[in-house]
Amino acid sequence: MTTVTISLPESLKEFIDREVQTKGYGNVSEYVRSLLREAQEKASDSKLEALLLAGLESGDDIPLSQKFWRELKAEARQRLVKKKRVHKMHVAR
Questions:
Q1: Rounded distance, CA 90 to CA 31, Å?
Q2: Within the chain, what is the greatest distance between any pair of CA atoms?
Q3: Same domain, 33 and 13
């Protein structure tokens, strides 16, 4: 694992220490990693939204058949299972 050193004013250091204590993080590194994962997820969600909007604005419509909905639900379930697995891995660390 790579080490990163940052400089903070005392007020931010005190804030981080309170967050670590009150929210059950083991140490400052766990807290910062959690914030970074949230930022990563937010960026990913923003990218997905942009792609969905671009998709809506391009190309021809597709027919919404029963087969389409079954496949869409199956893909959504797979993504949800994968996301839960990744989340459990991060929490376990």
A1: 12
A2: 59
A3: yes
Task: Please name which of 88, 91, 79, 80 lies closest in space to residue 34, comparing C-alpha atoms.
Answer: 91
| Spatial separation of the C-alpha atoms in residues 39 and 41, rounded to whole Å | 5
Distance CA 84, CA 89 (A): 9
Domain that holds residue 81: 63-93
Residues 23 and 51 in one domain: yes
56-87 pLDDT per residue, tens = 888 778 788 999 999 999 999 999 998 888 77
- pTM, full prediction: 0.57
pLDDT band at 90; cut points 50, 70, 90 = low
